[in-house]
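Chapter summary example: a protein plus zinc ion.
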Amino acid sequence: MPSVSSPDNRVSVLINQALPKTLTYRVGGDPAPEGALVRVPLGNKQGFGVVLGPSEENIPEEKLKSIAAVLELPSLKKSLIDFIFWVADYTMSPPGSVLAMALGGQSVLAAKKPRAKKEAEAVSPPPEKHALGAAQKSAADTLVGDVKDAKFSVTLLDGVTGSGKTEVYCEAIEAAMAESKQSLVLLPEIALTTQLVERLTRRFGFAPVLWHSGLTPATRRDCWKAVAEGTAKLVVGARSALFLPYARLGVIVVDEEHDGSYKQEDGVVYHARDMAVVRGKEENIPVVLSSATPSLETVLNVRAGRYRHLHLPERHGVAVMPHIHLVDLRHEKMPRGGWISPTLQKALRETLQRKEQALLFLNRRGYAPLTLCRKCGHRFACPQCSAWLVEHRTEGKQRLVCHHCGHAMLYPKACTECHAEDSLAACGPGVERLKEEAQKLFPNARIAVLASDTQEHIDALRQTVAAMENGEIDILIGTQIVAKGYHFPGLTLVGVIDGDLGLQGGDLRAAEHTFQLLAQVAGRSGRVDIHGHVYIQTVQPQHAVMQNLAQYDRDQLVETLIREREKYAMPPFARLAIVTLSGTNPAQTKEAAQKLAQNIPSVQAVEVLGPAPAPMALLRGRFRLRFLVKTGRSQKIQDFIRGWLSLVKISPIIRIGIDIDPQHFS
Ligand SMILES: [Zn+2]
Ligand SMILES: [Zn+2]
């Protein structure tokens, strides 16, 4: 009989990897209390994890391994461990993968020596506070009350650009500081939002701790420790900052709560806005969702009484809403091979004459989205994905690139199919091609492109933003990156080149996202003293989104969309999940999908559609088939999927990806 040690000596450890279960270890020399971070032997390697508590697992003593070391790092609080398991359950991900986000990467755990303390920083300037208007004051008082009471609440802070949402949530942050508590501000695209970071720095007289994927390992470790020890009073971060081990969190702000980049699509598939609400509940603190164009989900939560609504009216004389003009492309005489309509050209000319700035918005990176052969009609597609190759012409190189997997080739001299020379044609515009057109029309204008790939380095992107702020650019041409909360004081004209782009495709959120994006871009225009103008080029001026946008009627659009979602029983009136099977062999992938299809349990009010090829039927060399699962609002969709998947044995070479509450159907 193998001897069994007392259960007190063995603990259950959650490893920061995608393992199917927790592991049991013997406690070595140092005590390993609940929440302690430990280094443990794992196979013939080392792993890291967190102690969950005594283990009841029956393992023979001789097979039991000992904890190698208890790390000299703060322990994880029970509220964080509970949050990790909640997120894992909801997203159907291994808890270890969620833990990995909380631990902030190997660099936090592996580095040994703490860095020498930095030189004392220059004396900080005193905080700069702005006087609040009456509506702001009342909204701020409500939030400050929640922070002081340490009470869970969710508040939608709703107001147009310039209505002072930031000042309001800063009051809540200040109240948290007064209680020696930490604050977290989540932002989409943190690395680029220097304007808000500078503003927060001026407001509080010190720089917030930043958390995003671009940090060096040493900075990561320092930030993580500052968060865990409670010395980081204000953290500004991308979605992953939500999982950090705050010592005393007092308030969470989700800025631009409607933004699509809060959804993480790889690894643990989660929506940071929704998970922020869960974390707020676990920590018993207020959560503030801020937006000028709130998501439908949030609007409906307000209506159901689950979230509070604080509306900030437009402040008189502060930011004047722009005039919005729809340019009906069906009635414009478009220039040959050009995309800037005569109406928009005229507006651009007048803007330049007044020495004001313009922004042209086109959500397409590169030079041209499609290349085809005029002789044989061949279209250049990625060999690994269901996607066209996009032509790029940066740094004097002409290349064809896949935006999904990065596959790239030099621009061919002849057609790869029929070998005809000089037969290739660029179809459609990307931002680079639009720049070429604008430069031809306005040879003396200073024109720059702002896109996430033309400037690979964040520094270069920041320089372009700074040049625009300083008036060194006349026309800025950008992708959706320009909609991320910048404020350009000299900007008075915005031209949206293809207003219809977002309305295409069978995406249930297409209309909502298009309105949000266009409203954000429109929000870039308009100065304190001058009315800005927005020209939206469209072939569907009668579409509800365009009409509501032209009248700036957000509420009307929201009503239309809610009625539509209710009619078709789509979220948030139902729950959706996508189950995607992928494999390198199409026959095997299909076979696995058919096995699943034959075993769909019959459950009332649960609908499973598929298998069908995913819109990206081939991605990075893997064939993809998907099922769409739909349940009633009150059903637990995860339980249904778990039950279903447990009925079928799928070969491990087939990957199963699950997306709960999908944002789009690709
Ligand atoms: Zn050809
Ligand atoms: Zn590709």
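Key point: Residues 378 and 501 are 24 Å apart (CA to CA).
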